[in-house]
Predict the structure.
Amino acid sequence: MITTSGLTKVYESRGRQVTALDGVDLHVREGEVFGVIGQSGAGKSSLIRCVNLLERPTSGTVTVDGVDLTALAGKSRRAGKDLRRARSSIGMVFQHFNLLSSRTVKDNIELPLEILGISGAERSRRALELLDLVGLADKAKAYPGQLSGGQKQRVGIARALAGKPKVLLSDEATSALDPETTRSILQLLRDLNQQLGLTVLLITHEMDVVKTICDSAALMQHGRVVESGTVAELLATPGSQLAAELFPVSGAATGPDRTVVDVTFHGESATQPVISQLSRTYNIDISILGAAMDTVGGRQIGRMRIELPGRYEDNVVPVGFLREQGLQVEVVEEDAAAPAATAPALVKEGAK
């Protein structure tokens, strides 16, 4: 549904060039919720604004629902008309709501339809329908100043849906909201995704948002996508930065001649007593150094850092047992000469 290829955006700032996007390739499938995560300055907002051409890319292409938007970005009247038509299939939800304070809630939702030249009766019908959809049927005549932050964002979502888009873009839509309201807005986005078949591309810096709502995710750093895939694929990828961020575990070996491993559980393995089976089968004492578990997409997923007695060479068979159970296992290499605070490096599967 959304594809960017070699997408680059360079800004001019005080006589120097700043590269916000550096050759970004992104693929968002129809009907999924795709999260782009990264720290401030990673290029997330530039990416989402280039997807609907609020920002013109310096180079590269953006294709939405089979239409190359960058090919419609010319200055001719025809190109402008074609771009506006293509944009009508893309809704946008903003971090700070961007509602007009002088217009009622209903009038705010009608605004994009007004611009499209839709008749007054049809605008009114559609706005009331959308207010009901987002749970604000009783707020049609209220003004934005009379609403809570969560209610304002629901109005923003309703307005974004006015043109019956196939794609919904969300730029940090929950970052200004409290945790409880954030959960309700994320649930609303998931419900809309399922009820309307919407493809949702959302920008966030919060890992909990990815865990709560996303089918797939991409990690951005310094204007580039460094990791991308379904959440399940990322969790099964050795050394995945996103997996480690989604389910952080820590803990160093408690003494010499110890093997520390990170174990990722997902699917049926998450409900099985694998660690206790390992202990009984090989008659070894296992220490749990850290663990993180949550429900993602209706499935229990988690990571655990455990310590086995003996060096890695002594634990090849127990480690193999864990892998045979369908678990992702990464052996953590401890540098004996390093101070305890030094972060351990992950050894790729099959390496010592």
User: Anything to note?
Assistant: Residues 212 and 298 are 10 Å apart (CA to CA). The mean pLDDT is 86. The radius of gyration is 24 Å. The longest helix spans residues 179-196.
